[in-house]
Design brief:
4-stranded antiparallel sheet, globular, mainly beta, 335 residues, 26 strands, Kelch-typ_b-propeller, Gal_Oxase/kelch_b-propeller, 6-stranded antiparallel sheet
């Protein structure tokens, strides 16, 4: 019965959202799905089709004030309050966030510039391990090595604007510093390597990617951009969404840009221009939670080639929440 249940739900059933992680002893996972989320296109398509119906997607949003947290449905049909506990109400303000082994972590921010905290059930619990650098704002965090570690980079002043460190769930270790400053330049995966673009302070358009030997230059972005969101697609390309153009007085941007095969191209536009927003990729949709416009916009992509199909607005944030923390979860999480 256990094997039958596992066959019905793993690796791509509605009860098995993390695929083989939930059924590690099942022969299908052991024999045919080793690193399937990276190497097996059929598996990835199967997972997306099976578990990511828009009505089944729910995103926990933790804004700058923790007591204003809420759950947003992927189809836009509901937005309900969620109760998250934290040491301070501004605990997530200016913090970066990423997953480590499936658990949401936040890094730095206004309440404590070197803190690392983990979401356990409905509480943000501070860990004893600390960041090596003070990261108050303008920094970014990105899950790497198949979610086993997080890269945390950049910040608001001095050399911190170039520095990076890696957190593995228990320790932090410094790694290569970028060649350029990237305050509000973000982090996303391009060809499965961490990448950052632009900078608020120096108002440049430089892009670079972190290899095993250090940071390597990529083609400049067409605009002097910052305060955007970066999202890596499974087709190895990188999307840059929104932001501010410092070649145009810091004007807020609606552009959806793609870096693919070492070339930047604009592939679409947001319905409402925005910056300081957060984005999360679930199934074949990117959910972008805007700051300036407050609009929650969904970008839908084709299943196999990940071509942009449509952009729609599915709701509004209750207030102008700067870089909200986003976490995919279930419909009744902490409500």
């Amino acid at each position: 019965m256990t094997i039958l249940a596992c066959e019905n739900s793993c690796p791509c059933g509605a009860d098995c959202p993390t695929g083989c992680v939930d059924c590690p002893e099942h022969p299908l996972c052991a024999d045919e799905c080793e690193d399937a989320q990276l190497n097996n296109n059929d598996y990835k398509i199967c997972v997306n089709e099976a578990i990511y119906e828009l009505s089944d997607v729910f995103i926990l949003v933790i804004p700058i004030y923790v007591d204003e947290s809420y759950l947003q449905s992927g189809d836009g049909s509901s937005q309900i309050s969620a109760t998250i506990n934290a040491p301070e109400n501004n605990y997530a303000t200016y913090a970066a966030h990423a997953l480590v082994n499936g658990k949401l972590h936040i890094f730095g921010g206004v309440s404590d510039r070197t803190k690392i905290a983990r979401l356990d059930d409905c509480s943000l619990n501070e860990l004893t391990v600390r960041l090596n650098e003070e990261r108050y704002y303008g920094h970014a965090a990105l899950s790497i090595e198949n979610g086993k570690k997080v890269l945390i980079c950049f910040g608001y002043t001095g050399d911190i604007r170039k520095t990076c460190e890696i957190f593995d769930g228990s320790t932090t270790v410094s790694t290569f510093a970028a060649d350029w400053t990237h305050t509000f330049g973000g982090l996303g995966l391009y060809k499965n390597q961490p990448t950052s673009v632009g900078c608020l302070d120096y108002e440049h358009q430089k892009a670079e990617t972190l290899s095993a030997t250090g940071w390597i230059s990529l083609p400049d972005h067409p605009t002097r951009i910052s305060s955007h969101s970066l999202v890596g697609l499974e087709n190895q390309s990188l999307l840059l969404i929104g932001g501010e153009d410092w070649g145009n007085g810091g004007a807020d941007q609606s552009g959806i840009w793609q870096l693919k095969d070492e070339n930047w191209n604009q592939i679409g536009e947001l319905l409402q221009a925005d910056y300081y927003g957060s984005a999360i990729y679930i199934g074949r949709s990117i959910y972008y939670f805007g700051y300036y416009s407050k609009a929650i916009q969904r970008l839908d992509f084709t299943e196999e080639t990940e071509e942009l199909q449509t952009v729609s607005q599915i709701g509004n944030q209750p207030a102008d929440y700067y870089y909200p923390v986003l976490f995919q979860t279930v419909s009744n999480y902490c409500v």
